[in-house]
Amino acid sequence: MRGLPRIFTRQSFLLVQVVVCVLVFFMAYRNSTKRYKREVEDLCRSRNITLPRPDVAFPVPKTKKNPVVSAEIKPGDKHINPRIPSGISDNHWSNVSHSIAQNDTGDRENTNLNMKALTIVASFQNFPPDDYLARSESFFVLRDSVVNDLDPRWLIQNSPCLSEGPFLLVVVPSVDEHAQHRKAIRATWASPAYGQPWPGFARPFKELVKVVFFLGVASVEKRKDLIREAELHDDIVQGDFSDTYQNLSLKMTAVLRWSATYCPSAGHVMKVDEDTFVNLPLLLYVLKLSSYFRSNYVLGYKHAHAQPPVVRAGKWGVSKEIYPLSTYPRYLYGHSYVISGDAIQRLYHASRHMPLVPNEDSYVTGMLAKSAEVLRVHSDKFAYAGKANTCDLINNKDITQTHFKNPTAFLAMWEMIQTRNCSRPFL
């Protein structure tokens, strides 16, 4: 009889252990998102970041529709919404933002992608002041009169922007003979904007993301083909300017004007080169979180030089008559960068009052951003001049990568994303 209590106690103890383990496992499974929330809060506290309200999936803009942006909106105007300028209703955002959270692989994958996005946002670096240009600050003061009155005639005018959104407008500068490049982009990383879900996701991001290919004057033999392409995909905008390297800044200025006029409620505008691949889900998560912490910014990969030098000869050569200084303001590489919706207005105004310089990235993300007092933000997850490992795109470590030389490389990258098999680290 003396052994019974001891046996009973041992058995009870084992039973309690089993029950506790089962309960712990069950609660851990049920509360994976709560654990993620605690991890997020700990990370935010360590980085001095204030989290948004947990009940908001995406920044909910005001329901009032924005008017078409005027060219004379100045950087200091008080009425510019410091948040995302959009006319999207609360119900619309609730429905649309839910689509990005519906991942076929379950909550664990969602929280992992969220955590990676938060880590990326927490690593953002604001540009320091351009102190080395202190003696030349007067050059970057916007001129009183308009010096660039660009008002191109739109030869093809598709406008995918509705009164509600989009959250992200992607602008891809292109040329008439690159129809196969555009086809490859539509079939791969941009396909969620055309109704196809990203691999691993249940739904596309068609209402969140719109894509526009921006072209100059086409050759006579390509004109009819381009019109048919525009009618088929509704994603072509063509202006009456020449498509040359020296006109890249002019072309991007036209993009700013078009975006401000025909897509004023876009939450963000992303410029992407044709040879650049975009991890669209990761980008959306990053911009969703970034919208809580910053406004009036341009985001991308900073130029390698702390004082970017001006090249006077060759393809990138700029004469002293056009730009008399020996260095540019710090700027972002032009492969891919994102402009917040409220900064589009400021950059557009600045482009009308600042002399044009041919190098598009140094002009838009350096000179105009500095003159318009737009925050320049660096992230090493964007494309840069060097060659990157494509496995980092598959594993959600990079937002964009560049140097995809032809449509075949896009298709090969897309196949690896679909199979999650990094068989070719370098394309």
Class inferred from helices and paired strands: alpha/beta
Task: Give the % helix.
Answer: 25-40%
Low-confidence stretches: 28-37, 49-90, 102-107
Distance between the termini: 77 Å
Task: Please state the oligomeric state of the protein chains shown.
Answer: single chain
Quick one: overall form?
globular
How does this model look, in words?
By secondary structure, the protein is of the alpha/beta class. Among the domains are: 1-30; 121-383, Spore Coat Polysaccharide Biosynthesis Protein SpsA, Chain A (Alpha-Beta Complex), CATH 3.90.550. The chain has 12 helices and 11 strands. The protein has helices at 3-30, 32-46, 90-101, 107-122, 179-187, 220-233, 248-262, 280-293, 341-352, 360-371, 391-394, 407-419; strands at 125-126, 154-157, 168-173, 209-215, 236-239, 268-272, 277-278, 297-300, 336-340, 375-378, 400-401. The chain has a 9-stranded mixed sheet, sandwiched between helices. A two-stranded antiparallel ribbon has the order 7-11. Helix 2 runs parallel beside helix 4 (107-122), helix 7 (248-262) packs across helix 9 (341-352) and helix 9 packs across helix 10 (360-371). The longest helix is centred in the first third of the chain and has 28 residues, at 3-30. It starts with a helix and ends in an 8-residue tail after the last helix. Mean pLDDT is 80; it is low at 28-37, 49-90 and 102-107. It is found in: Golgi apparatus membrane. Keywords: Glycoprotein, Glycosyltransferase, Golgi apparatus, Membrane, Signal-anchor, Transferase, Transmembrane, Transmembrane helix. GO terms for molecular function: hexosyltransferase activity.
